[in-house]
Amino acid sequence: MTVWIDRWARRAAGTSVRRVPTPVEGSGLTRRDVLTRAAVVGAVAWATPVVQSAVAPASAASGVDPCVAAGCSQLCPCAIGSPCSNNLDCGSGVCSGHVCVQSSPPDGLCAVDPDCTSLNCGSDTCDENYTGGSCRSGVDCFSGVCTGATQTAYGMCAKGANGMQCGSAADCTSGVCAPGGICVTAYPGAGSCSKNSDCTSHNCNTSTHTCRANTTNGYCTISVDCNTRLCNPATNTCVKASPTTGVCTKNGECTTNSCTTSTGLCNYSYGGQTCSQGTDCYSGTCLGNKCAKGSTGVKCTSGRHCVTGICTGGFCAPGGNRKRCWVNTDCVAPYTCVGASATRAGSCR
Question: How far is residue 29's CA from residue 324's CA, in Å, rounded to a whole number?
């Protein structure tokens, strides 16, 4: 369970990403730019060799990898099966026994699909496949399961067990692919359960055999496990929503302690009302879990929400001599705001 939670967390945080293709030294081109080939699987010859270098046209026309004719190098990486002297000679980045061989996901280099054991070259690196994709071993598959592979033939990626990555329900033996791309038994809104452990929320309604979402501080694995749609993967607990993130079903699910149940959205707080961060407040400032009173132009319903004490037409208005202020625009000319700090209001003088 911990392993796939970690994998989901990395995906949610955006940290599980591929490397951006880097230019080949001296050419300004990536490996994919340097060599774009239409390959015949398992063959050394290329159907349409196109090399962005000074390779003789006769080499391309012969059906032989033109990089072999010109000499394999980092500027002209060779195909699988071509002779090589070091890793830089190969599009796959792997020279073994003086022959270019395939590299494997998740970080193997590639110029074209056949450079990968998965036959799936992404942005300069080999990618795993979902169910039905080609493979030579489990590392080629998001599910970790490759069936039917032999020394001379590719196999096929099979469905994954709970905890493995998925692109759709068809990728999972359970038939359920949860948001975030993880195979599970059930989660709120999909699958069926007979006990709490069947649910990513650990909350099964045994009478209806459906998983239930939890309120704040309840257990969660993915966002839909929470009424607020906010799950902290580090603690596996549902957290409160703010006016800018998440949703709510009751006041206690909002950082502002104010929910409009008809819209399912948390309300901003006026000056003097509850907050946990600046984005909870119309004023944009939260001091000691209370919103700072608003400057000129901030929404208000009464003078007590404004630093100047003046609310006109639903917005805070500037004040005259000795009125409290945060910035100069809180004061009517010719007065300016004197003595204000990040935590203490000044006065118009």
Answer: 61
pLDDT in tens, 257-290: 999 999 999 999 999 999 999 999 999 999 989 9
83-137 pLDDT, tens per residue? 999 999 999 999 999 999 999 999 999 989 999 999 999 888 999 999 999 999 9
For residue 1, is pLDDT > 50?
A: no
List the structure tokens of 20: 């951006």
Rounded CA separation 3/202 (Å): 17
- Using DSSP, state whether 4 is helix, strand or coil: helix
Q: For residue 347, list its beta bridge partners.
A: 324, 338
d(CA 133, CA 158): 8
Strand order in the sheet with 337-338: 324-325, 346-348, 337-338
Q: Tens of pLDDT along 95-106?
A: 999 999 999 999
Please name the residue ranges forming H helices in the chain: 2-13, 31-34, 57-61, 66-70
Contact present, 23 and 30 (Cβ < 8 Å) = yes
Rg for the chain (alpha carbons), in Å? 30
What DSSP string describes 205-226?
ETTTTEE--B-TT-B-SSGGGB
N-terminal to C-terminal alpha carbon distance within the chain: 63
Residue 210, phi then psi, degrees to nearest 5: -125, 150
**Given the DSSP bridges, would you call strands 146-147 and 155-157 parallel, antiparallel or unpaired?**
antiparallel
pTM of this structure = 0.63
Report residue 263: phi and psi, to 5°: -105, -15
Q: Is 262 helix (H, G, I), strand (E, B) or coil?
A: coil
